[in-house]
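$ run holo --ligand "N-(iminomethyl)-L-glutamic acid" --emit tokens
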Amino acid sequence: MTTLFINIKELIQVRDSSILKVSGQEMKELPTIKNAFLLIEGERIKDYGSMDSLPKINADKTIDLTGRIMLPTWCDSHTHLVFAATREGEFVDRINGLTYEEIAEKGGGILNSAKKLQEKTEEELYSEAEQRLQDVLKMGTGAIEIKSGYGLSLEGEIKMLRVIKKLKENYTIPIKSTFLGAHAIPTEYKNNREAYIDLIINEMMPIIHKEGLADYIDVFCEKGYYTPEETNQILKAGKSIGLIPKVHVNQFNSIGGISVSVKNDALSVDHLEVMTEEDLEILSNSDTMPVALPSCSFFLGIPYTNGREIINSDLPLALATDYNPGSTPSGNMNFVVSLACIRMKLTPEEAINAATINGAYALNLSNDIGSITKGKLANIMITKPITSYSFIPYNFGNHCIDSVYIKGQTI
Ligand code: NIG
Ligand code: FE
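-- output --
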């Protein structure tokens, strides 16, 4: 099956050779072709170029995109899309003056989600997560990472990971699965944290390994959650069963999580609302992708990741949603790209690079997605008729994605 798109107003993020990520000054450049064509053959991008150079092609289907822009789909490298219940009660508590940390200390937050998750069956969790996945697909997300971390018990964590595995099997969108057993310390282990860490390493991990339930290992390294030493211990154990670290660090405090993550060859470090000079320095000497989650800052009213400083330090930066019931009840990557421009002062070029090619890197998928490159998967999105690609972040709170193709198939 071949599909030919013609008269594309502008084809965005065109990379002739497959690059894995863009850093620093390179992020300001977003290569495009105006008045373009693109040919899909099967699951992959076969050819593209300017309409002036359109060869004679006998495609099965030809689609005229006059006035519309085409981009590679968004790559959302950080979500908690499987969860049991929303938490609008805490949202109201925050309006009335409590902080996210105060709510967590009172047994709300992640522990609240863990309690709710116990009461739901795998089937119920699956059908709710599936609905969320379908919703974000329509908004242009074409590859996604999903974490466990609301189980916080052997049974709960495995249940979540099985739901993610089933989503992987039933959907064509590339999905990566992350084991986040170390998301919080369960109440019953409050005075015996070592026992919970022991459960993670010696009981959960062997099952995860045996059933192939995860690609990545994550820890919430933060005051009141996991120390850098505990993070190190859990990441090392994860690595020993083939899981690659992707770590929650520096959301509220810089306590050494970046150093531990980089030493364990983390694929990404995520959040980074609070950064020191030393943290930036450590990242400069690494292959680890810094990931900002601006919707979380927006929703909690906490500082935004200083993306300008990260990019100006010649580092790469990726953007993701953090979709979860507590700190970010939204999986809309279009809004993330808007916030990155409006609040983090990224240019549209930088934000689109961060949400496509660099997001693909943070998923360990940049060989296959994240740019318009011959041979990559045909995961593409088409806008409504719009004036320019800067309209995408400008149009905040709305989105202009009209159609989405995953592996060459319209969804
Ligand atoms: O990335 N910070 C840790 N974990 C999630 C929030 C989890 C929750 O509040 O349910 C996050 O923001
Ligand atoms: Fe998160």
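-- notes --
The chain has a mean pLDDT of 97.
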